[in-house]
Design a protein that fits this description.
With 249 residues, the protein is α+β, with helices and mostly antiparallel strands. It has one domain. Helices cover 19% and strands 44% of the residues. The longest helix is centred in the N-terminal third of the chain and has 22 residues. The chain is globular, with a radius of gyration of 20 Å.
Amino acid sequence: MQFITMKIKKLYRYYFICVMGICISCNTNKTLDKQPENIQEDINLNLESKTANATYPKTIAEMLIVNDTTIENHSKLKVYQVFDSQSQSRRLSEQLMGALFRSYIPLCIDNGYTALLSGYRLDFHPHKVVLDTYDDLSCKNKIEGISFTTNSEYTELENGEYDVKYILEKRTFPSRFGTIEIEQQMMQCDDTGKNPLTLYVEGGNYIKFHKIGNISFFEEDFDKDGKKELLIFNYFSCKGILKVYKIDN
């Protein structure tokens, strides 16, 4: 286990976020004056916002991953891409930027399995998901998977500074497929970490996901076939990117 600590001055994150937001807004206005073509992008985004609900619900079939340089599969298990926000609308990615800042993605299990996002929901069905919008979704029963984010802990000192400790280690968890290993690495930015996942199976075989930011994973019977599948939520908060993978045999 490796710990890295440092001291930083007291940060007022929300204050800087607001100030940066104002600066970005000012710069954007100047840019629009110089680049009229950006005005059309804003018009398109507004039109998309007004017609967003008309495109939902949207059914997305899972896709078997065969050639992906970020995933090594040296086993007989199958890896599927269940969802990729980058293949959806620009508006969805922008809304996910807010939803993914939390430390985990909850699953509602009142009626099947539903991932709760900001204004959106992902309903899991056998071999597909349904992406839909919602204004108010009440959920009585939620489950939390095993999650890792920035791998950092902050402790406020008496002088107003913060002591930052980075937890860099490998963690293992049992799975019906074998053993899951998470390698906690230095974070990529203030809200997104690095947490590569490796699933070790019998016979020395393995599946390794190299490009993992923040992660939440669950082992549940999502396909309703009497056997549990491993579901991996891989998300990059500041970019509004969410990818969901499934491992099954």
